[in-house]
Amino acid sequence: MVAQQPNHTHPLNIPVNHNTLREGFLQGLDSSTVASMIQTHVVSNPSSTPLSPVIDALFEATLADPSTSFNNRDPHPYLRRFLDASTYFPSSIVHAGVSGPLAGPRALQMQIRKYSMWMPSQPTTSPCSPPHSSSSSSSSSISDEMQRIASDRQKRKDHIQWARIHAAALELGILNMGRADADNTAYAYAMSRAFSEMMARDAVWECDEVEWVAGIYVLRAVIRTAIRGDRRQRDEYDELLRTYERRWKEIKDEARQALVTVCPLFNCAFLYSDGNA
């Protein structure tokens, strides 16, 4: 990727920070303006990975879209905006040793890997803790537990949204950008999918169903982007889909079933059987 030349600098007469970057992505400002804002932020906040806060702002924008409900928040448009802005990055923007336009995809790849692991909230009290004797302590414990539950619920939404971003990045080819072996088509294809396939295979066996939700989003993207005609791969994906379906049937609570079905499992199966793998 060769850096484009911005047509103008960003017209915003306000400091460029996390909030203004998020709003820039939300409002769909033109690519050169967003690139200029990002460059200003990078210069003001130097580090070896200066685009990490930018990716976090991008993530928040995908969650804050007021036009859709949480279950329908598609990150594809936001990733395209960031990718388009990245084409304007000069060589002075360096993220984890990668400079210029490829620094953007590099930053996104790193954040996707970072947030692909589910870290559950810890209970506020230990099972071995002695019982509280006072009513005030009891009230405090209830309040703390309610706060923990709310925090855990938000963490689950965040984890699912990162899985959506992971899936969108795979579908847009972002996970293959910047690889030294990009010209070796077959090898690059396999390597760009290796992490996603591993995540989809492992997630279904985890204890927490939020990991199954994340896994099925990524698996759907893996199936969508698979090369057709590979019988071995087709059989493997078919078995993996059946495993996800069996795990879903293990969930007895209707509210938790509703959470899991935010990504309809059978849509993935239909898409798969439609010949895309």
TrEMBL record:
Residues 119-150 are annotated as: Disordered. It comes from the Eukaryota. Residues 120-143 have a biased composition (Low complexity). This is Uncharacterized protein. The lineage of its organism: Eukaryota, Fungi, Dikarya, Basidiomycota, Agaricomycotina.
